[in-house]
Amino acid sequence: MRNHNTFQARTTHQAQTESGSGTPAPATILQVLPALGGSGGVERGTVEVAGCITHHGWRSLVASNGGERVYQLQRAGAEHIELPLHSKNPFVMYANIGRLEDLIRRHNITLVHARSRAPAWSAYFACKRTGVPFMTTFHGTYGAEGRLKRTYNSVMTKGVRVIAISAFIAGHLKQFYGAAGEKIRIIHRGVDLESFDQSKVSAERVVKLSTDWRLEDGCPVVMLPGRLTRWKGQSVFIEAVAQLGRKDIRCVLVGSDQGRSGYRKELDRLIDFHGLSGVVRIVDHCDDMPTAYMLSDVVVSASTDPEAFGRVVVEAQALGRLVVAPDHGGACETIEPGATGWLVKPGDKNALALALGEALSLDDEARKAYAERSIANVRKHFSKAAMCAKTLAVYEEVLAERG
Question: Architecture of 4-190+384-401 per CATH?
């Protein structure tokens, strides 16, 4: 067995001398997550921060089971190490401790940042063995029913710093896990302002998507993006549209059912029941969300459970769209009622219908004022650049404490 104190002293000495004249050498940051597939906030944030680490002049490594985003990661100048970190099998998780310990030693990792529970447990013990600081990002509420589940989740509070993606999540950490407030850092998710920019979305893209979705000219478009799962509130949205009683609008549910065919059929039946087949339609996953937002007059979040952050609301505001969202979770931090959007009682079809009616009734001048305030709000508080800079500041804070 290696002497861990000796190892720590050796890497500290390297950090002080490798760049010459006693100047600390660049840090090496390892992020760990289950995989790099899909379009979730965990995967996207990992790639964005990895690129920022590299741009900062540090070395950036990511360990995961791989996926289509590995290419994006490598384009950002980061390195990927494939490990079975997606597995929740206790034997695999235990083996991953040794794999990560070896990786930490071979690459002289300076800090480990865990973004999901299964890999976090392995990384936590690997960091214990090597003396390398361990930190986490708490991305969601995860569901905290029962002592066993809460114990499994609790690894995300064991970091020397815990990044919460909203004040709502920070409160959840304190309430359910007794996390110390002094080690929590609130860093909201960030929007890529290069992609979510009105000037970057061409008319040709909008026309093409409108044609693909079979949307008639002259009809206001209301969009609810989000995978088809019950807590996203698609049924509440359909009921609200029925309550609104307008046939001159087109409402689009954008998202894959991800195998939940039963729920998809339930929504289809609800649309038919209310006679909304000419008004509401369900389309699959969209690969060009900036264009989807630009095609919309109003963007809705109808989640019945609180969103940890609510990326849809912020992306839509970045493009100057009117937004309506439930008055709970992250939306309370990203919408200023009466200035950048509407907050309504969660799960209340009548309140949602009323807000939709108000949004659709605005004249061009009022819509323009909302758009200007919304864009300014996102650029000031919720940019990708700000998220990355704040994350690096936490890294520097942790490393400074370690000398």
Answer: 3-Layer(aba) Sandwich (3.40)
pTM of the model as a whole: 0.88
Which single residue is written with the structure tokens 């990992």? 46
Read off φ and ψ for residue 136, nearest 5 degrees.
-135, 165
**Average pLDDT for 230-256:** 96
Closest among 168, 150, 162 to 124, alpha carbons compared:
162
Same fold, 4-190+384-401 and 198-381: yes
DSSP 301-358: ---SSPPSS-HHHHHHHHTT-EEEEESSTTHHHH--BTTTBEEE-TT-HHHHHHHHHH
CATH architecture of 198-381: 3-Layer(aba) Sandwich (3.40)
pLDDT digits (tens, 9 = 90+) for 127-151: 999 999 999 999 988 876 778 888 9
Residue 150: helix, strand or coil by DSSP?
helix
pLDDT digits over 320-369, tens only? 999 999 999 999 999 999 999 999 999 999 999 999 999 999 999 999 99
Segments making up each domain of the chain, as ranges: 4-190+384-401, 198-381
Q: Find the radius of gyration of the CA atoms of the chain.
A: 23
Taking a C-beta distance cutoff of 8 angstroms, is the pair 118, 147 a contact? no
